[in-house]
Amino acid sequence: MLESDFFEVSDEFINLANDLGDEWAQPMLSASIMHAAARFNAFHLMSQNDTGDINTAIDFLTTQYKQMLIENLRELRSDQPDMLNHS
Question: Record's InterPro entries (predicted)?
Answer without folding.
Answer: DUF3144
